[in-house]
Structure formats: structure tokens, C-alpha cells
UniProtKB/TrEMBL annotation, chains A, B, C:
Record EC number: 2.7.1.50
Organism: Fusicatenibacter saccharivorans
CDD domains reported in the protein's UniProt record: THZ_kinase
Gene that encodes the chain: thiM
Annotated metabolic or biological route of this protein: Cofactor biosynthesis; thiamine diphosphate biosynthesis; 4-methyl-5-(2-phosphoethyl)-thiazole from 5-(2-hydroxyethyl)-4-methylthiazole: step 1/1
Family: Belongs to the Thz kinase family.
Name used for this protein in its record: Hydroxyethylthiazole kinase
A GO BP entry: thiamine diphosphate biosynthetic process
Enzyme class (EC, first level): transferase
Positions bound to ATP: 117, 170
Record's function text: Catalyzes the phosphorylation of the hydroxyl group of 4-methyl-5-beta-hydroxyethylthiazole (THZ).
Cofactor requirement: Mg(2+)
Keyword hit for Disulfide bond: no
Keyword annotations of the record: ATP-binding, Kinase, Magnesium, Metal-binding, Nucleotide-binding, Thiamine biosynthesis, Transferase
Gene Ontology MF annotations: ATP binding; hydroxyethylthiazole kinase activity; magnesium ion binding
Length: 273, 273, 273
């Protein structure tokens, strides 16, 4: 029951350490608060070990890398791993530059990520060790569709198996898989793509779900994906004709703020393969 | 009359230099504009002395420290002090890491802060030279309540006396004290805690109040605290059932935008001890 | 027809590389998405050449300079120039500090900017090699008015000629000029000045317009200025009595989200001199 995963966040108020990009960091903080978690941000290498030690999970997002924040990511990741914390990687723009690709690949070699969450283009880059993405959006030619679903599911499971983690590939159809099982999720709306950072927000919130549901990372990750998509649907239902992407951003976070386990349970649209 | 403090901001449009965290910086800028002030942000050591020189006040917030921004804080603080500017310290997360605690304590040794504003956990950390905070939220066990109010007021006055400044300890009950007098303020709503950065916003706005009311730092700080809490009340009154923390953030800044001295005067809920 | 410039953005979804300040970066990203473009942010020197190579345009904004981001600006600018990309400079706070002025002037010497967009105080600083601005707002004494319009238009054309670029000087009356022609634009509302970053947003969006209309930089820049001002007018028409500057920020981006070429064509208020 995915709704339980949400309830567990509200019951336990997990503290999440975020090393994330400066573009969408405010929205990441607000959605963590909205879902019942508590955010703290720190990327300075001298600060990250102390901060991650008081948290239950670590969210690493490479959307705006700096030399010093990369150092912070490695240090925080090592510390979080030594403490058995849940750790998530959001490889924003992997494939778009050598620094992003090499940083994501390098982090994967050193840090035992619980979940890696990205679009299909980013995940393919990590799988192939190379690739090209158009900015932070998935390559249109490579999106997950009903036509290529079987092969996409197989790809996700293989990726999860190879990297001993859960992988969440988000897009029009979302895939959340471990080596054996794949949630195929159909919540959400295309208009969410016109807001910056819905992926970053999902990664932050997903980390909270992982912390609050320590024994079920696959289910927790799937629940977070369903919750984000459902919030996109609920938020859209409150949009007025003059509202656009900026108001929609607020409406989605607001919907997370009001969502309870029962709403998520009823609204989640997925099949398990 | 606290309302006069607000009116003085609108009359004089104080320019406030902010060295603040990248999580909530946009909201800090917008609330400064909302209250009638003008913000400028700069943390690069080579830039801060020039910038602070053209301002009337300096707001230092340690929410996301970097080695270079720490250098910028010391340089800006020294310059602002030499010019007799109002200077505020927001010790976000003091107690959560050695770097944060040592930076806050170190800044206090070098810079004559007009006001130090934080939650009870952060202020206790500064008072004790050690301590533990859960992220950026006050330790629940240590919150100011009606039961411990007398001792909390005494603590605040002692802190203010020891550090020769005004201290603002914000929470469900807010305390704003100098060595002799303490405002006990009961504006605000608990739901404000589900928005990231209401404290950071208050610190920015409070700096503007200090600049606009140069001879009355205690009253100015108290007025800013009342204004923020009152904005939380007014903003909440405009919330619709579907609105959550993201919309609430906007509503609070909007309420500051419309607030005048008379509204603040009528709405402020405080006693002086 | 300025409306065509907007339509071309929606048809081509230009990818814009932004090296911009951390205060308003989220709004810049959202307005780029709202207008039909796609944003990517990167300022790390090791990352910027790869990122700018996959984009069509580069938006450089000096609002919160760091030593490393300045290096990133030079590297990205050189790469973008070598690729024939459109490049825009937003000299935020030029005149307010030596670092800002020298960086803006230094960038202008090395990088062939397509457009330089700022307020009159910033542009005068660049023209004179010195000057003073009050934070990020135009010096009131030096604003463009109907009384000084002739000399302001002449100044703009001369600046454009001297620097071989289009210049956009924004304020109550906006001027967009090349060496021969100046658009005098009267869209917008004074209340836009109470939102942080409307200028930064305009610069981001303008870069997208430049990329989508490669042969007409003057018209593209003028169209972006009209679109921003018109969005300010449309957004204001949806404001309720309790709404303030934070909601207005959302309403403006929302208006850009809904704007089409026909709306811009009808709503643009300008004369060509």
C-alpha cells in the first residue's frame, strides 16, 4: 500500500540533507516541508559531514556543479554511507557535459546510492557511460512509450541490477525498478514539464520517503513518484484560465501539503511488472 | 508605537546588503521590496566592501556557508561596523555543525551586531558555545512556553547584556530583548513553520527596520517581529481550502506589501517585560 | 511584426545557457519555460564550454559575482562567440562596486555581445567607465522621461554604435536601440519594480528571442521588452485586492506562459525613432 509510505513520512518527520542546485533549491525545501519532512542544505566540504550526520538521508543533485560542491558530494556521500543512510542521486544534465557525466559516474563508483532518479536520457548516459541530452529534458526520440515499454522496463531492471540500487526513470510514463520488479506509473500531466525543477523536487521528496520507509526502497520510491504525479493532477484541477506555470508550481507543492495516505492510495495509477 | 517603525521604512527606503543563503534568498529580496526597502545581495569578498558602503545595513545569514562567503561576511562586517551601519546576524543552524557554530561565534567576536535573531536552539548554542539543533528548527524540548516564560525572558535579557546587542528569539512566542526590556510577542501562526525561510525573511526585513529607526533598535526589532507574525495571520485569512505552504509563502509577502503602520499598530500582540 | 518574434520562440524552443545570479535564477528558468524556451544554468568554468556548446544563446548576468563565475563568464562567452551564438549581458549593479563595473567593462572588451540590457544607471556606467547606482535600481535623477527622451534616444543609439550591439535600457520608458533605430516602448507598470528580478527575467527571455530570430536582434529585443511589459499589464489585471508583489511575480510569468504572437502584436505600445 503506497499510502502507508506517505503516512510514514508525516509520522517521522525525516530530516533530509540536500546538496542540490541553486536554481530550484527553494522549491525542494518547500516540497520537503509540504510532505512532512524537514530539509537542510549544505554543500561546503567542511560542513557536510556534520550536517549529514544529523540527518536520515542525503539527496545529491548535480544540476549546478561547482568544484567545491563536488568535493562536498563525495565527502557527504562517504559519511552518509558509513552511517547507513539512504542516499539518492539526481544526475541532472548527465550527458550534457563531460563534468556532469564524469561526476555522476564517479559518484556512482564511490557511493552506494539507494536510488538513482533521472530522465531516460540521463539514465541512459549513466548506463552507457556516454550520451547526449538536450539540457535537462529527456531526449524526445528516447522517451518511454507504450510501444517501447517492454524494452524500457527491461532496461530499468538491468540498470537497477547492475548498480545494485533502485532506479526511477521519470517522464510521461514513469518507471521505478529494482532488479526484479518495475512499477509502471501513469500519474502526472505534461504541463509539469513547463515548470523548472519538478524533477528536483521529486528527488528531494523521494529521499524523505526512503528515510521514512527504510525497509522498502522500491515501494517508497514508487510512492513518491505517484505522489508527485498525483499532485500535478490535483494542482491542475485548481488552475484558473489565467494561471500558468508559475502558479502551477505553487499548486503542486500545495497539493503535496494536503495529501494524505488515503488520497495517494486512491489516486496512484500504476501497474507492477 | 511600533507602527511608526514600519512607516519609517516606507519613508526612507533603506538599502540593505544581504549575505544570505541561496535557499531563501529570493524571498528575502521580495519581502524587503514588499516592506518598502531595497535589497542588494553580494558575498564575494572582493565585492562586499563596496556594496556594504552604499547600504545602510547588513544582514548576515549563515544558512549555506561557503569558505569564500565566510570571508565575505568578515570583510563586510568590518566595513559596515566602521561606517556605523546596523548589522544583523541570523545564525541559521548554529549547533548543527562545527562550521556553523564556530562561524557564528567568530563573527560575534569581531563584529558589533545590532541584533542577533534566531530560534531558541540557535541562541542557546551561541550562549553556551555548544549545543545541538535539529536542522534549522528549534529543538521542541527547548521551546519558549508560558510555563518557562520567566526564565526565557531572563535568558534573553542576559544574552543581550552579555553581547551588548538586541536579541530576537523567534518561535511560537517571540522574545525581543535588550539588557533591560523584553517584548513578548504572540503574533503569527504555527503553519508559518511549514514554509522555508520565514526566519530568513524576517531577518532581512528586520535589518531594514533597524536602518529606518536608527535610535531605537529594540523597538524596531520588535516591530519587525510583530509585522512578520501579523502578515502570517493576514495571509492565512486569505487562504483557500486547496492552498498550502507554497501559496502561503506568497500570501505572507503580499500581506507585508500591503501593511501600513496603522495596521501593524492595531494588530501587534505583545507585552513588555 | 513583433508578434512573429514570440511565435518563433514557441516554434523553435531555443535552449538558453544562463550564468546568472542566485537571487532570481528560479524565476529566470520559469519565465524561459513560460515563453517556450528551455533553460540550462551552469557557471563552473570546467562545465560552461560544454553547456554553451549545446545551446543557441548565452545570458550573462553579473548580479552575484564570484571569482569562479567570472572565469566561467569569460570562458562561456569566448566559446559562444566562436560558435556564433547570441550573447546578452545584464550588467546588474554596474557602478555599485568596482568589481561589478570592471567585470562588465572587461566582458564587453572580450565578448561580442548581441545585446546589453540594463537600467539607465548601469548603461551610463558602462558608457562612462564610472558612475554610481543605488543598488540595482536606476538612479531616479537619471531616469528616461518624456522631457529628456530625445537626448536619451541619442545616447542609446550612440552606445549601440560605439559597442556594435543592440542596447536595451529599461525603466518607465524603455529604449531598445541599434546605431540607427530606437524603439521607444511604453508597456509595463510601475509596480513591477517591487518584484525582484523582473529585469533578470527579461534578460533571460530576451536571449531566447534573439536565438529564435537570428537575423533581427533589434526587433527581437524590442519584442521581448514589449512582452515583459505587457505581461506586467495582463498580470496586474488578474490581481485581487489582497495580492501583493509575490503573487504579482507569479502572475507575470503566468501571463508570459499564455501569451501568443497576436496578443503581443495587439498589446505592444511603442514608436520607432
Amino acid at each position: 500500500m503506497l499510502g502507508t509510505c506517505l503516512d510514514n513520512v508525516r509520522k517521522t518527520t525525516p530530516l533530509v540533507h540536500n546538496i542540490t542546485n541553486y536554481v530550484t533549491v527553494n522549491d525542494v525545501a518547500n516540497i520537503l516541508l509540504a510532505c512532512g519532512a524537514s530539509p537542510i542544505m549544505s554543500d561546503e566540504p567542511e560542513d557536510v559531514e556534520d550536517i549529514t550526520s544529523i540527518c536520515g538521508g542525503l539527496n545529491i543533485n548535480i544540476g549546478t556543479l561547482h568544484r567545491t560542491s563536488i568535493d562536498g558530494m563525495y565527502r557527504a556521500g562517504a559519511k552518509a554511507a558509513s552511517l547507513g543512510h539512504k542516499i539518492l542521486l539526481d544526475p541532472v544534465g548527465a550527458g550534457a557535459s563531460h563534468l556532469r557525466t564524469s561526476t555522476a559516474v564517479g559518484l556512482m563508483e564511490k557511493i552506494p546510492f539507494t536510488v538513482i532518479r533521472g530522465n531516460i536520457s540521463e539514465i541512459k548516459t549513466l548506463a552507457l557511460g556516454s550520451g547526449t541530452t538536450k539540457g535537462v529534458d529527456a531526449d524526445v526520440a528516447d522517451k518511454v512509450t507504450d510501444e517501447n515499454l517492454d524494452s524500457a522496463v527491461a532496461f530499468a531492471k538491468n540498470f537497477a541490477k547492475d548498480h545494485n540500487c533502485v532506479v526511477a526513470i521519470t517522464g510521461a510514463i514513469d518507471l521505478v525498478a529494482d532488479a526484479d520488479t518495475c512499477y509502471v506509473i501513469r500519474n502526472g500531466r505534461a504541463e509539469m514539464g513547463s515548470i523548472t525543477g519538478t524533477g528536483c523536487q521529486l528527488s528531494g521528496m523521494m529521499t524523505a520517503y526512503l528515510v521514512a520507509n527504510p525497509d522498502e526502497p522500491l515501494k517508497a520510491a514508487a510512492a513518491a513518484v505517484c505522489a508527485m504525479g498525483l499532485a500535478g493532477e490535483i494542482g491542475w484541477s485548481h488552475m484558473k484560465p489565467e494561471d500558468g506555470n508559475s502558479t502551477y508550481r505553487n499548486r503542486i507543492i500545495d497539493a503535496i501539503y494536503h495529501m494524505d495516505g488515503e488520497t495517494l492510495e486512491k489516486g496512484a495509477k500504476y501497474e507492477v511488472r
